[in-house]
Structures are given as structure tokens and as C-alpha cells.
Amino acid sequence: MPFLPFFYWDNTFILIIIGMVISGFASMYVQSTYRKYGEVNSKNGFTASEVCRKILDVAHLQDVRLEGIRGNLTDHYNAQENVLRLSDTTRNSRSVAAIGVAAHEAGHALQDRDDYGPLRLRAALVPVTNFGQTAAFPILFLGFFLGEAGGMFVNIGILLFSLTLLFQLVTLPVEFNASNRAIQVLETQGLLSREEIPQARKVLNAAALTYVAAAIASFLSVLRLVLIFSGNGRNRG
User: Fold this and answer.
1) pLDDT at position 73, please?
2) How many CB atoms sit inside 10 A of residue 234's CB?
3) Residue 2: per-residue pLDDT
4) What is the Cα 212 distance to its own chain's centre?
5) How does DSSP classify residue 3?
6) Is the sign of the CA dihedral 27, 32, 35, 37 positive or negative?
7) CB 3 within 8 A of CB 145
8) Cα(237)–Cα(235) distance, integer angstroms
9) 87 pLDDT band (50/70/90 cuts)?
10) Which residues of 80-93 are buried (b: 16+ CB within 10 A; e: fewer)?
11) Which pick of 82, 166, 174, 196 has the fewest CB atoms within 10 Å?
12) Cα dist. 112→63, 81, 217 in Å?
């Protein structure tokens, strides 16, 4: 009797559960860390938006626009639009947590200025990864229902699905490097005190764990597909 292998509940489904648990813990950790240091105001009295602007100006990035965006921790830098957007909970806050997040996004602008390789690679992977996410499952379904004749389609489908994992792996050095740049500039420019630098680092390290968790979850999803289809092939043989 045919079944849908992607939603089939078998022993390999534990891999999906493990990925969800890891991602959930990472998300809770970053939220709790942000809340903790979101209550600690910087002694310098700057808002996160002011700190971000200072970092950009010192780096000769006056052309990068600084805008607001709705939401919580929706902060991001858009290289195509040359704009850095800080969320409602970040831009007007004077907390160490908010300043750390804003500096991290400024770190991405510095990467863009320096033509940082992993950042360029990640940008190039975006359309490819989006295509892979869209096409992977239809091709896998086709390969599954073709039986033995569908082996090539199965391999292509898994390869396309694996592009998400590749994207997550490339994202790791981009995010860690942006955080390192942020801490360095906050310290050298005296935008946070000596006591506040470790606190900001804890916030950024917690945020980085969410990317590590995403990469682990993606790997476990790919592994599950490989196990399902390799087992399926053995059963048909």
C-alpha cells in the first residue's frame, strides 16, 4: 500500500522531533537572554538606533539608510536596498541587548562594505534555495511513485532539499562574523562600557545558537529523507 514518506510516522520521525526540540530550546534561550539584558540600560545613554548610526558613520557608510520596522527582533540589513531596519523593540531602546542586536546588523553592513565572501555566497544561494524548497517535494513524490524507475528523481529531490542545509551552513560564519564585528566596534568605539561588553556578547551568542539549531534541524530532515528512501529502495529490491 503506497504511503507519503514525508509525513509517514515511523522510527525516523524521531529525527524531526529532535530538530524541533533543539530549535525550541534555542528560541526560548535567546528570548530569555534578550529579556534579561533588555532590562539593563547602557551607561552611555545611547539608543540602539543612535549606536547603529554611529557605527555606520565611522565605517564611512553614511549612504546606508536607517529605518524602523514593525515587530519584535525583526531587525535586518538589506544589501540590495542599502538599508538597515531596526524593529520597534530595538531602535528606541537604550538596553544592552538592543544595542548588541543593532550593532550586529551594522556588522552585516560592514561585511557588505568589505565584500565578505560568505555573505556574497549566501546571497547567491537565496534564489537557488528557494527553488529547491519549491521543487524538492514534487520531484520526490514523482520518484517515489515511479518505483524502481524513479531513483534518479529521488536523488535529485533529496539534493534540492539539501540546499536548505547548505544555506544554513553558509549562514553560520556570516552570523558569527557579524557578531564578532559588532562586539569589536562596540568596544573600540567605547559605545558600551567594559562591564557591558560581556553582556552584549551573551545576547549575540544566544542569537547565534538559533542558527546552529536551524542547521541541525535541516541536517536531521535531510537524514530522515535519505533513511526513508534508502530503506524504501531495499524493500523494493
Assistant:
1) 85
2) 8
3) 38
4) 8
5) -
6) negative
7) no
8) 5
9) very high
10) eeeebbbbebbbeb
11) 82
12) 13, 12, 28
Q: Which member of 105, 148, 175, 195 is catalytic? A: 105
Say what angle helices 151-188 and 96-113 make with each other, to 10 degrees.
Answer: 110
Phi, psi of 84 (to 5 degrees): -115, 125
pLDDT at 6 over 70: no
Q: With 0-12 CB in 10 A as exposed, 13-18 as middle and 19+ as buried, what is 71? A: exposed
pLDDT in tens, 100-139: 999 999 999 999 999 999 999 999 999 999 999 999 989 9
pLDDT in tens, 164-189: 999 999 999 999 999 999 999 999 99
Catalytic annotation present for 105? yes
- Cα distance between residue 1 and residue 60, in whole Å: 64
Task: Tell me the CB-side half-sphere exposure of residue 148, using CA atoms within 13 A.
Answer: 4
Q: How many residues belong to the chain?
A: 237
Q: Residue 8 — very low, low, confident or very high, per pLDDT cuts 50/70/90?
A: low
Please tell me the distance from the alpha carbon of residue 61 to that of residue 56, in angstroms, as a whole number: 5
Selection from 210, 192, 189 nearest residue 201 by Cα: 192
Q: How confident is the model at residue 168, as a pLDDT?
A: 97
